[in-house]
Amino acid sequence: MNILVLGSGGREHTLTWKIAQSNHVDHLFVAPGNAGTAAIANNVPVSPNDFEAVKELVVNENIDMVVVGPEDPLVQGIYDYFQEQEELKGVHVIGPSKTGAILEGSKEFAKEFMSRHNIPTAAYQSFTSDSLEAGYAFLETLKAPYVLKADGLAAGKGVLIIDDIEEAKAELKNMLVDAKFGQASAKVVIEEFLSGIELSVFVLTDGRDYLILPTAKDYKRIGEGDTGLNTGGMGAISPVPFADAEFMQKIEERIVKPTVDGFKKDNITYKGFVFIGLIKVDGEPYVIEYNVRMGDPETEVVIPRIKNDIVDLFLATANGSLADKTLEIDERAATTIMAVSGGYPEAYEKGKEIVGLENVKDSIVFHAGTKQEGDKVVTSGGRVIAFTSFGDDFREALKTSYDSLNKVCFDGIYYRKDLGFDL
Ligand code: AMP
Ligand code: GLY
C-alpha cells in the first residue's frame, strides 16, 4: 500500500516511524513533514488544509490510505471531502467525519454530546453576547475558580481559569463582545471547576468497536512545577501510574463505551483516534475534553508502546473490523522530553543548527519543529525534538531521555527538568 501522513510535528514523525515498520507499506509520504520524516519517508510540500493539493498528491501517487495527524483538516471536513470526490472514493482516511470532528471543534457540541449520553463531565451552560447578563448570573451561582471556554478552536489558548469573579465577568465580556478569540469566542461555555489529577486516554475506533490504547500524561506548562504559560506539551509519560485496573474499568464503562455508542446513536461516522482528556476527582473519572486526533507529545510515548503492525489496525479501523483485533502492548514505561526553542511559547528564533543527534543511541529521537538545510538539521518551530525512552518504570525511562537530551544542543535550547514530579 501507499500511505500518506498529514502533518509536520512530533506526532506525525512518530506515526510515520511506526507505519514505516509495517509489512503493508510500499511507499510512504508525509505532507509537509519535517527533517525527521524526510529520513524515513518522502516529504511533499503540501499543506494538510489544502484539500485540492492533497487530492492531487493522492491521485498522482496512487495513495491507498491517508492518516490525518492534526485537528484542522478534520474539523474542516477532510473525511467528507474524500467521500465526495469520485477519484478518492476508495481511499481510506483515518480520522472522523466532519460531524465527529465537531467534538473538538465546538466545546458546546461536546458538552451536549456528553450530556445526551450520560458521560460524566463538569456542569456547564453556554452563552453568547445576547445572553451576557445571564452569563454573569450563572457565574454568581458557581464557586471560584471560574472556567471560561471559547466554544471554537483557539490554538489551545481558549480556556481561561480565573479566581476573581469580577475578572471572570470582565473576561466573559471580552470573549463574547470584544471577540478576544475572534469567532471562536462568539459562544462561551462556562463550567464548574473540577479539582483533581489529569490523564489522557486514547481510543482507536471504527465507529462500532474500539481499542483502548495506552494511557499518558502530558506536561503542558512551560515552567517547572506546572507553572507559566501553556504550551503544546513539554513531555509525556506512559502508562499513567495512578490509572490502575479498577480506574480503567470505570473509564471504559462510563466513558469509552458510551462515547462510541454515542457515535452510533447519533449517526456519527468515526474511523480514527479519540483522545479523551480526563480528570480524576475523588477516585472518579470526568471528561475535561475530547480531541479527535492523537495528542502531541502523547503520541511519542503511546505509539512506541504498541507492538501491533499499526497499518493492520488502521485497515481494521477503515473496514469496520476492529472487533477482531487485540492490542499487544509493551509493558515497559515510556517517556518523552521535548526540547524547545528559547522564548517558546512566546516569540522565538528559528534556523538554529541542531548538533549531536548522531550521538543519541539509547532513545528514539522524534523531530517536531526541524528542517533539513543542506547537510544540516535546523530548528523551525517552538517545539523542536522529543527524546523517547523505555524503562522498567517512568523514572528509569526519564533518566535515559535526559541523558540523551544532554548529548544534543542548539542555541537557546530549553526543556523541563522535573517531568513526573507529581506522580
Ligand atoms: P481544555 O482545552 O478543555 O482541555 O482545557 C484546558 C485545560 O484547562 C485542561 O487541561 C485542564 O487543566 C483545565 N480545565 C478545563 N476544564 C476544567 C474544569 N472544568 N475544571 C478544572 N480544570 C479544567
Ligand atoms: N498535548 C496536548 C494535545 O495534543 O492537545
Describe what is shown at a glance.
With 423 residues, the chain is an alpha+beta fold. It is built from 13 helices and 22 strands.
Radius of gyration from the alpha-carbon trace, in angstroms: 21 Å
- Give average pLDDT, whole number: 96
Low-confidence stretches: none
Cα-to-Cα separation, first versus last residue: 42 Å
CATH structural architecture of the domain at 2-97: 3-Layer(aba) Sandwich
Small molecules (ligands, ions, cofactors) in the structure: adenosine monophosphate, glycine
User: What would you call the shape?
Assistant: globular
SS element count, helices? 13
What is the fold named in CATH at topology level of the domain at 2-97?
A: Rossmann fold
Estimated share of beta-strand residues: 25-35%
Largest sheet, described in full? Answer: 9 strands, mixed
What is the structural class?
alpha+beta
CATH class of the domain at 2-97, named Alpha Beta
